[in-house]
Amino acid sequence: FFFQAEDGIRDKLVTGVQTCALPICCTVTFTSVAFGTNFNILAGAAIDSTGTMTVSCSNFGAGQNSKAVVCVALGNGANASGTQRRMAYLTNRLNYELYTDAARATRWTNLTASAPFWVLDATTPSASVSIYGRILAAQTTTPVNATGTQYLDTVAPSIVWTNFNGTAPACSTLVTTIPASSFQVTGTVSADRKSTRLNSSH
Questions:
Q1: What's the start-to-end Cα distance of the chain, in Å?
Q2: pTM to 2 decimal places
Q3: pLDDT of residue 172
Q4: What is the pLDDT of residues 104-126, one digit of tens each?
């Protein structure tokens, strides 16, 4: 196989990469996970938002080129502490997580071997998938500036894939990687919110 990878999209909110294993070509794009502006960290509850990942493949053929499997892991982010994902403002940190399900019960792993995967073919050539984000409750935030403070993180996906026929190979067996564009996780704390805990009552 000959593999060619290139940047697919040049947009602040949407990033992506295209790769080809002739004749199949696949594109993976991401939108930012934006928790919004001026959210109230004094409310006591976790704060949820979503982003979107879209996996699209084209030029399916016969035999070994009839299907593609794409496995996507999401890195722990540029500001992580161990495996804890964190947004940053200067030296301040705000813990958050990314999940594969709406109940936010299954953390989106940073390991490709155990990553969620999608099988695509000519009948189903694309999949649009939600990335479920949550700012965790009961954590310390820091004083913000007069106009509100934007916390930010950058997440680098790790993607492996192959074309196949028959039963999809396990993600742990795939060795072909795609150089993936990162996406952002953002949120702006309200300007009138002071240093406190998310579960504080005052």
A1: 62
A2: 0.83
A3: 96
A4: 999 999 999 999 999 999 999 99
Task: Give phi and psi for 182, each to the nearest 5.
Answer: -80, 165
3-state secondary structure the chain: CCEEEEEEEECCCEEEEEEEECCEEEEEEEECEECCCCECCCCCCCEEEEEEEEEEEECCCCHHHCEEEEEEEECCCCCCECCECEEEECCEEEEEEEECCCCCCCECCCCHHHCCEEEEECCCCEEEEEEEEEECCCCECCCCCCCCEEEEEEECEEEEEEEECCCCCCHHHCCCEECCCCEEEEEEECCCCCCCECCCCC
Exposed, middle or buried, 185 (CB in 10 Å: 0-12/13-18/19+)? buried
